[in-house]
Amino acid sequence: MAAYVGDAGSLVGGTPDRVDSQADLLEARWADWMARAQGGDADAYRTLLGELQGAIERYLRSRFGDADLVEECTQESLLAVHRARDTYDPKRRFRPWLFTIVRHKAIDLLRRRVVREVVRPDPDVVEAAADPTHAPPTERLEAARLLEALEPKYRDALWLTKIEGLSIGEAADQAGVTPSAMKTRVHRAIRAVRKNLAGEPEP
Amino acid sequence: MSAPHDDFIDGLVGELKPKPKWLRPISVGLIWWLASWAFVFGAILTRAPLRPGFDGQLVENLRLALEVGIGLGLGAAGISAALRLSVPDPTPLGQRLVIPVVLLAGWLGLLAYGLSDPALAPSMLGKREGCWVEALLYGLPPLALGLALLRRLAPLSRAPVGALLGLTAGSLPGILMQLACMYDPWHALTHHVGPMIPLALLGAVLGPRILRRI
User: Do A84 and B15 touch (CB under 8 A)?
Assistant: First the structure.
């Protein structure tokens, strides 16, 4: 649950203790609605999609800011949730399933946008790549491209720690490695981003 | 919520249908496993019987039994991993592939070891002409069935899932050929296991085209 407390915080606000219990409530509610939707309950499905729309929008806005991107990505994420709805297992947690889809769509969309937009690399973007939540929109697009260029394990390390906002320990748990290995991955990922920006090959 | 969003959600709700009872990963895996084995077994037996004495060899020779057992495990682990990769989940792709990769390495390792110390004395007994073509062709329907079934799920990495499916589909005739065709580790590697490579490549090409983009 800890991995998604941040999302819950942006969804429901409140103190960390309240966030935990409210996140649990959200989790249970969404899981229940999706289970009912899988049985054909249109009302439960409509309510779920309405609530997910707001949650996804807040999640994306807190990370990307760009209104157009958030709007487009929210719609694509809802469509993806709709297409993947039969794969949700009500015995498992809903939020990892949901946010895996949202992250996948966000990366997909960013990749497509970067292809469309010509963004001049700037050494200052190094920090944006390491922490895209603090960068303006164009730099975030560049950051996404830089993340995509990394080896998956380094990209995941940056994503989990700098975009998901997990601690080193939480990210290590999620990736199935030791905290020191995760720390090394984050360090190497940032170094690789710097090298990529400088036009050098990845290590 | 704005009106366009309401319309969008209404559109999605309008497409809602109850989830089919069989559409659970375990059921899908079982359907694939049974149908694919039935086809491969039937096709191999239709063309020619299994190698004379294969059952005795299997019981008496632990190494041969291990080769076949690991091959069978690879098929099960491969389809299981492909199914898990077809359900959105934050687990890294590499972590999902550990078991099939270890089994594949074990299987190839045993056969490679057999080059210097074969499990059975190499023999031409039971040789099937064009066995590599059989191994290749008999892997195609399981690959097609797997792609058709996984199309109902939501694989995020479609090319790797397609490749894994191709590899798994190719392993089925590859294993059975170990009992149907002549025994010789080099022949097994090139003629029985080798066709798994083009099948994996075909799966990697077909995956992004056939599996649904969510």
Answer: no
